[in-house]
Structure formats: structure tokens, C-alpha cells
Amino acid sequence: PAPVVSLAEVKTENGEEAEDVAHEVRAKLYRFAPAIVGDEDKESVKLVQSSAVAKASKTEAKEEEGKAEGESEAKDNGAAEAAKDGEAAKVAAMKWVEVGIGPLRLLARRADDEGGKRRARLVMRRESAPGGPGTKVILNVALNEQVAVVKQMETSMRLSCMDSVTSKPTTYLLRVKRSDQCDDLLEKVESFTKGEN
User: Fold this and answer.
1) Measured between alpha carbons, how far is 115 from 96 in angstroms, rounded to an integer?
2) What digits encode the pLDDT tens for the residues 9-65?
3) Which end of the chain has less neighbouring CB within 10 Å, N or C?
């Protein structure tokens, strides 16, 4: 028989020990990101089945369209040259890309470090199994006055913030199951972004 070895109990930490869960809901996370498609795929690309996500992408595309007017002429010339060479022209398009599904938590610090204001952040982890615990961190955003949250549709809200890795503006879409869940989440997030807490 194999020898029995007694192991010391190890306490695992996830970095949320000094924070209280102010709100928690299961959500689906999308990120507005560029995608490269060939000419033959342009018409067949589906952004996402949800009407909420489709509407949000149209709004974002209109905003980006104004910025990209100067760049479009250069892209058209490059696409024409590639088509002349017999290659499929590549076009960069912005679309909503699903990042994952899992528990979304609004975490607030217990200790007030800044004269009565509580710092908070949104943390979302990808589920290991449907309805199971979250594992990999897919969203970690500090809530402050620079973070913009807008209710997109009945069950979704758009979150615009700075990406902590690339330091570039990033847009996320959070979709929940019911409209009352979206309203509660939006209310609690806005209380931290507007400095009410």
C-alpha cells in the first residue's frame, strides 16, 4: 500500500478579501473589437444574434465612421491594389466579440482611503461550467468618473473605459437575463462612477 502523507491546509486567495460584494449577477460579456474579413465573407459576417448587440454595434460604427473618413481613401486604394493582384481584399470591420459568460461582481473596498469615498471595481470571471464558479478573469475595471456606463437596451449596458493593458479606450457590452437586473446593476455602477459613494 502507498504511504499516507498528511499535507498542511493551504489558504487560497483571489485578491477580493479586502472587498465587499456590493452587487452580483450572471452576465455575458462582449468586447467591441476589429476583425479582418475577406470580400467573400463581408455579407455573411454576423455580428451577434442579439438585437441589443446589433444596435450597439451600429451606434459604435457610426461614431467610428466619422473618425475614419480620412483613412477610408487610403484603405480603398490598398484594397483595389490587392484585388488587382488577384488576392482577396482584406477589410477591417469592428464587431462585438463574445468574451465569456460568468458571474459579474461589483466589489467595493472596506476601508475608505480617500476621505470617505469608497473605491470600487467591476470584476468578471469566465464560468468553468454553466452556472458554476468563475475561473479566469475576463474583466477588471476600476470605477471612477472616467468610466462611462449607458443602458443600451432593456437587458444590456455599454461600458466605456481605458484598457489597463494597452492604455487605449475600450468598449464592453454586458448583457443580463432580465431588465430589472440591468437596472439594478446600472444604478449601483453609476453610484460609484458619479462619486456618490
Assistant:
1) 39
2) 888 787 788 889 999 999 999 999 887 665 544 444 443 333 444 444 455 555 545
3) N
Cα radius of gyration (the chain): 21
CA distance linking residue 119 with residue 142, whole number of Å: 8
Per residue in 46-57, pLDDT tens?
Answer: 433 334 444 444
Q: Is the CB of residue 36 less than 8 Å from the CB of residue 90?
A: yes
Q: How far apart are CA 16 and CA 24, in angstroms?
A: 13
